[in-house]
Design goal:
- InterPro entries: ABC1_dom (IPR004147), Kinase-like_dom_sf (IPR011009), Prot_kinase_dom (IPR000719), UbiB_kinase (IPR050154).
- The protein is α+β, with helices and mostly antiparallel strands and about 550 residues long.
- It folds into four domains: about 110 residues, no CATH class; about 100 residues, Phosphorylase Kinase, domain 1 (2-Layer Sandwich), CATH 3.30.200; about 190 residues, no CATH class; about 70 residues.
- It is elongated, with a radius of gyration of 33 Å.
- About 0% of the residues have low confidence.
Length: about 550
């Protein structure tokens, strides 16, 4: 741990300077980070010639993230999908973050491609476009054509990006360790878990073979669909650092003029897109988690194409049923059903007051049932649900927020293409279908089979477990291990109390001894001072010293 701190010292000091520059001196002064800032290196708190303190705290947090670089920006973007962890104003600021960066040198890109392929580019491609189609913090994309004639795009990872990301991830772990107490006081109860989850996500994003597997999985699920297409990944040419995908032409789904020029119905395109997405969520439980217009293309024949599978969300069967149950309970104006399904959906749901929870859900239902169909908004509903989740500290799967965010994006696209587009009307039949699936004979038999298997396994192992316990009891080897958490402060206080009690008792004992010594009959050898035996003065001195120790301990405690 000490070694990690030393190796990251320079970068930590840079982070500290950025925090101080934007007025977060409380983060530094209230944690061990304060030791890393010499007085002479204090910087003026200015941003773009504007006093930092004229901005809000949330804006300053965004400024800090922007200056710290791509890894921190990606973490903030990931947290912008977790309103159960962060307050709404901070979510709004994080959603403004952009991670677009200039492209890197095409010659470097070619070198990386040749290193990964193990042969010259000319032996794989007949054409290669030096001008990238797009660029991001992890990599950039070039068009090319295989020797076999297929048009493709190549995603190339930036040079040394893995090392840079790993360095920043180590730094994030170190910063969380140094500021854990401060973050918990700000309401972030599990900062280390958040960084761990982000690390897993980033390492997965750095491995392009993971995206290729997701694409192949979607292609298999939708192989019989004629209105939906997923580009083919060329696994034989792809590695962890380069991904070669079939090139698909088309316009953005939001390009209404182009759709009309092709003779397509924008309303039909919007309905098809929503149906495909809801099928991903409620039938397959795996969905494309970033359906912004740039990632959803439309071909001239009306076929929808999804690209960029770097972000994919998943729901288990039980999570899928619970998530649908929330919407069904709302449609039926049943707050209790919504509350129960929220508890089923949450990973941990310690709700101290279920009546208050149901009352808030009732207010939500009443507000939305009073609206006209044209006034209902998925964005407003998502915001209200996220506020309730945050207020009651419900730890729900991250996929839930990805779904809500995606539904808001799709609703925005739908309203551009379809004047009377209403997300709730599309969700309603899927909710009914989920209920039918949940209580179908096949699913009930499957659940019964699972329960029976678990019960049978318990019955099979129970005699052996009981025999082992009885054997340990007979030999006197049975031990009970109890682990307590959060008791260190209590033990420290108890230790202080015991110590002070002992000192106080000793002081009382010496005081009593001094008083009783005045009644004693001593020989002529006993020295006296001001009419009292010396032994009495010694008793008073020790008593005074012990009382002084108690006074010092009490004063130090107040200062702490």
């Amino acid at each position: 741990m000490f070694k990690n701190t030393i190796s990251n010292l320079g970068r930590i000091r840079q982070v500290v300077e950025v925090l101080v520059r934007y007025g977060f001196e409380d983060v530094v002064t209230n944690t061990t980070l304060r030791r890393l800032v010499p007085q002479k290196r204090r910087l003026s708190w200015q941003h773009a010639e504007r006093p930092v303190f004229e901005t809000t705290r949330w804006e300053r947090i965004r400024m800090v993230i922007e200056e710290l670089g791509p890894t921190f920006i990606k973490l903030a973007q990931a947290l912008s999908n977790r309103p159960d962890l962060l307050p709404e104003p901070l979510i709004d600021e994080f959603q403004k973050l952009q991670s677009d960066v200039p492209p890197f040198d095409v010659q470097v890109a070619k070198q990386i491609i040749e290193q990964e392929l193990g042969r010259p580019i000319s032996e794989v491609f007949t054409e290669f476009d030096d001008v990238p189609l797009g660029s991001a913090s992890i990599g950039q994309v070039h068009r090319a054509r295989l020797l076999t004639g297929e048009a493709v795009v190549i995603k190339v990872q930036r040079p040394d990006v893995q090392e840079k990301v790993r360095t920043d991830l180590n730094l994030l772990h170190e910063l969380v360790r140094l500021t854990a107490g401060f973050l918990r006081n700000q309401g972030l109860s599990n900062p280390q878990d958040i960084v761990d989850a982000f690390e897993r996500s980033m390492m997965k994003e750095l491995d392009y073979t993971s995206e290729a597997r997701s694409m192949e999985q979607f292609r298999k699920l939708y192989e019989s669909y004629t209105t939906f297409y997923i580009p083919k990944p060329y696994r034989e040419f792809s590695t962890a650092k380069i991904l070669i995908i079939e090139f698909v032409s088309g316009c953005k789904i939001s390009d209404k003029q182009q759709l009309l020029a092709w003779g397509l119905s924008p309303e039909k395109v919007a309905e098809t897109g929503m149906d495909i997405y809801l099928t991903q969520i409620f039938e397959f439980g795996i969905f494309h988690a970033d359906p912004h217009p740039g990632n959803v293309l439309v071909r001239p024949d009306g076929t929808l194409v999804l690209i960029d599978f770097g972000m994919v969300g998943k729901l288990t069967k039980q999570q899928k049923y619970a998530f649908a149950g929330v919407f069904i309970g709302m449609a039926r104006q049943d707050a209790r059903s919504m509350a129960l399904n929220f508890r089923r959906l949450a990973l941990t749901a310690d709700i101290p007051d279920m009546r208050a929870f149901e009352a808030d859900l009732t207010d939500l239902i009443e507000d939305f049932t009073m609206l006209d169909v044209k006034e209902m908004s998925m964005s407003d509903l998502a915001d209200r649900l996220q506020i309730i989740i945050y207020d009651y500290k419900l730890q729900v799967p991250g996929a839930v927020f990805l779904i809500l965010r995606a539904l808001v994006i799709l609703e925005g696209i739908g309203k551009v293409l379809h004047p009377s587009f209403n997300t709730f009307e599309f969700v309603r039949p899927y909710g009914a279908r989920i209920i039918a699936e949940q209580y179908s004979t096949e699913n009930i038999l499957s659940e019964a089979q699972y329960t029976g298997t678990q019960l049978l396994a318990l019955i099979q192992t129970l005699p052996t477990d009981i025999r082992q316990i009885m054997r340990k009891i007979s030999r006197g080897d049975l031990r009970v291990r109890v682990e307590l958490s959060g008791y260190q402060l209590l033990m420290r206080k108890a230790d202080q109390l015991v110590s002070r009690t002992i000192i106080a008792l000793l002081a009382v004992a010496f005081l009593l001894f001094s008083g009783l010594s005045l009644l004693g009959h001593y020989t002529a050898d006993m020295p006296y001072y001001r009419g009292m035996p010396v032994i009495t003065w010694w008793g008073f001195s020790i008593t005074s010293f012990l009382l002084l120790v108690l006074l010092i301990l009490g004063t130090r405690k107040r200062k702490e």
